[in-house]
Structure formats: structure tokens, C-alpha cells
Design brief:
- With 403 residues, the protein is mostly helical.
- It has 14 helices and no strands.
- The longest helix is centred in the middle third of the chain and has 31 residues.
- It is globular, with a radius of gyration of 21 Å.
- The two termini are 17 Å apart.
């Protein structure tokens, strides 16, 4: 186990299974981005009720709140590789059936809601299993580089490659994006199934042990580690701020800045491009200053970017600030994920990582509501200032971990 402030610099090898896991993650992310871009368009074609359309997105959050901790506990009990390919196989079959229904003109809002809920429910197991599997594929000192490569590639295909492809696929038929997503799930399942890993050796569970008790054990272990506890609290606060910012960013750009939809697209592109750059520098920064200090620096810079965004009424300043914000977001995410993997016992990693994800998902909709209320009460720049105000105590809580 590495310390909170130091890292061991080691390169990532594409051999040993990491290359296949990376390919599976990137292919699957591309398919997810196709589906997530196409689903709101399909929902809007089926109903003009804004609440129903928004509910499709909400169903993508709800399972994390209901089953996120359970997914982590199950991931710690099972062979993660088998769980991942089985989940992707099932998701591929669900998507293929949905594509067939859309092709036959049988699509409905109810079916969309059920699909979104089912896919995210399965994702709670897949994501936690993937987090727990990665340390078995790369040396501990190479975890930061592996996380950076995974997250950066997923950002590229999700933000820059999938969106332009969706209109082309839709020209071929409303069902085509969903059929393509089904194919990506099946390809990812095949890649993961081809990994040659021995099933993890685990100590026998105590007699009478239940999933509920094991979830509680994971939460207690998380809370007993000062670095993970503070990082979890800081991440939750930041996610509330992020929810406020993202939900109202269009209001900030088109309202407070009085710019058009093209300007809004430019801001989103700046964040995406910054995230890709952040993936390239996250490991190097951690090697120079330490992992905890990297997260601290990232959060401090992000707070400054939010403050500038909320006070300077100029589009080019917002674009620049959001580009830097994107860089630091990836630095935070890569090093946070690596810290969780480094500081968690192998047999509890699924449960500990699921606590982070569940709290993060809970923070996003809460922040979105707070951001909307702040914008309505004080103007379109208020959510950015609210987010900055949340980042400050989040970053301050990490200061005590820096040697």
C-alpha cells in the first residue's frame, strides 16, 4: 500500500490483459455515447411532456442510489471477469431487443424508462467489478497510468467521436444507434471473456455473513481510513457543485453571457478537450508532487476557474476557464480512483469504490436542483459561484493530508 502523498512511477504494459480491458472499455463507452445521444431524441419523438423526457435521464441515476452499494458487495464476492462479461452479454441482448422493437415501431416511453433503469442497474455491478479487476492486470505503481489511459480514451470517444456519428446512423433508421450499441456490448463481452486470469482467492466468509453486513463492513473500512474518508467527503461536495454547474451551464452561456448555442457548444468542447489533456498530465503530476497533493492542486485550480467563470462576463474567459477546469477534473478523477485502488484491501475494493460512486451520483441531482434554484433567484452566474463555494471546503478538507 502506498502512502497518501507518494507514488511509484512505473509504466503501463498493454500486455497481461490491460490492452483487452482498455479496448473493451473504449468500445463500450462509444456505444453508450451513441445510445445516450439518441435516447432523448427518441423520447422527444414519442412525447412532448418534458417531465417524461427528463425521466428517461433520471432513470439513469436512480439505480445507483438503490443498488450502488449492493453492486459493490456483489463485485467483492464473485469472479469479476466473469461478472463483467456476463453483464455486457446481457446488456447487449437487451439493446438488441430494444433496437428490434424500435425497428418494428414498438418503441414507447415506458420501454425507454425500463431500458434505462435496467442498463444502469447492471452497470452498478459492472463498474465496481471493473474497478476491482484493474489492480489484478497492472502493477500497483502503474495504476495511475492505467486509469489515465482508460479515462482519457473514454473521454475522447464519448465527447468527440460518438456525437458526430449519431446523426449519420439516424439517417439509416431510428433503430440503428441502438443496434450499434448492442454490437459494442457484445464485442466488449468477448474481449473481457478472453482475459486469462485465475479466479481471485478470497478468505471464506464468516458463517451467516450477509450482503448487508458486508456492505456495512466496507463502509466502516472506508470511514476508518483518514485519506479515503476525507477524499470521499471532498468528492461528494465537489459533485454537488458539478451538478449545479452542468445543469445550468446553458443558462450561464446563453443568458448571463448573452451568447448563442454555438458558444455553448464551444464551452462544452473546451471542457472535453481539457479533460483529454488532463489525462495526459495526471500521472506525471502525481509523480512530481504526490497523489494527494495532485488532487489538492486540482481542486484549488478548479475553485479558481469557477470563481472566474462566475464573475467575469466574457465568453472567451469562460471558454479558457472551463478548458483549465476540464484539465483539473481529469487530474482529480485519475488520482482519486488510483488512491481508492491503492488504499483499499483487494477483497473490499468493490464495496469501497461503490460508496464513492453512490455518493457521487447522489450529489449530482442534488446539485442540479440547487443550481436551478440559485440561477432563478440570483442570476445565471450564481451556480458557478455556488460550485466554487462548495469546492473551497472540499479542498480545505484535504489540506491536513499533505505532509
Amino acid at each position: 500500500m502506498t502512502t497518501a502523498g507518494t507514488v511509484e512511477a512505473r509504466s503501463v504494459s498493454w500486455r497481461g490483459g490491460f490492452g483487452r480491458l482498455w479496448a473493451a472499455a473504449v468500445v463500450s463507452k462509444f456505444g453508450d455515447a451513441l445510445r445516450l445521444a439518441a435516447m432523448p431524441l427518441l423520447a422527444a419523438s414519442l412525447t412532448d411532456d418534458p417531465l417524461l423526457i427528463a425521466s428517461v435521464t433520471a432513470c439513469g441515476y436512480l439505480p445507483w442510489l438503490l443498488f450502488g452499494l449492493l453492486g459493490g458487495a456483489v463485485a467483492d464476492r464473485v469472479d469479476q471477469r466473469r461478472a463483467m462479461w456476463a453483464v455486457d452479454l446481457l446488456r447487449g441482448l437487451l439493446m438488441a431487443a430494444f433496437a428490434l422493437a424500435v425497428w418494428q415501431g414498438l418503441g414507447s416511453v415506458a420501454l425507454l424508462l425500463a431500458l434505462a433503469f435496467a442498463l444502469t442497474t447492471l452497470q452498478t455491478l459492472f463498474d465496481n467489478a471493473a474497478t476491482a479487476l484493474l489492480p489484478a492486470l497492472v502493477p500497483e505503481g502503474a495504476l495511475a497510468g492505467a486509469n489515465a489511459r482508460l479515462m482519457t480514451a473514454q473521454q475522447i470517444v464519448g465527447a468527440f467521436l460518438a456525437a458526430p456519428v449519431v446523426p449519420v446512423l439516424l439517417l439509416a433508421g431510428a433503430a440503428v444507434p441502438y443496434a450499434a450499441d448492442a454490437v459494442t456490448y457484445l464485442v466488449a463481452a468477448a474481449l473481457i471473456a478472453s482475459l486469462r486470469l485465475r479466479a481471485p482467492e478470497r478468505a471464506p466468509r464468516p458463517a451467516g455473513s450477509t450482503l448487508r453486513a458486508e456492505i456495512g463492513e466496507g463502509l466502516r473500512r472506508l470511514w476508518s481510513d483518514p485519506a479515503l474518508r476525507r477524499l470521499c467527503v471532498a468528492t461528494t461536495l465537489c459533485n454537488i457543485g458539478m451538478g449545479a454547474l452542468i445543469a445550468t451551464l446553458v443558462v450561464h452561456v446563453t443568458g448571463w453571457l448573452d451568447a448563442g448555442s454555438g458558444a455553448y457548444a464551444a464551452v462544452l468542447t473546451a471542457v472535453g478537450a481539457g479533460s483529454v489533456t488532463g489525462g495526459l498530465v495526471a500521472r506525471r503530476l502525481a509523480e512530481r508532487v504526490g497523489r494527494i497533493r495532485s488532487v489538492f492542486v486540482a481542486g484549488t485550480v478548479q475553485a479558481g476557474c469557477l470563481l472566474i467563470t462566475g464573475t467575469v462576463r466574457a465568453l472567451w474567459v469562460t471558454v479558457a476557464a472551463m478548458a483549465v477546469f476540464g484539465v483539473m477534473s481529469m487530474v482529480w478523477n485519475v488520482n482519486q480512483a488510483t488512491l481508492v485502488q491503492e488504499r483499499s484491501p483487494a477483497d473490499m475494493l468493490g464495496r469501497i469504490s461503490s460508496a464513492f460512486r453512490t455518493l457521487g451520483v447522489a450529489g449530482a441531482p442534488l446539485g442540479a436542483l440547487a443550481g436551478g434554484a440559485a440561477a432563478a433567484a440570483w442570476g445565471g452566474n450564481a451556480p458557478a459561484l455556488l460550485a466554487a463555494a462548495l469546492f473551497v471546503p472540499a479542498v480545505a478538507s484535504l489540506a491536513g493530508l499533505i505532509n
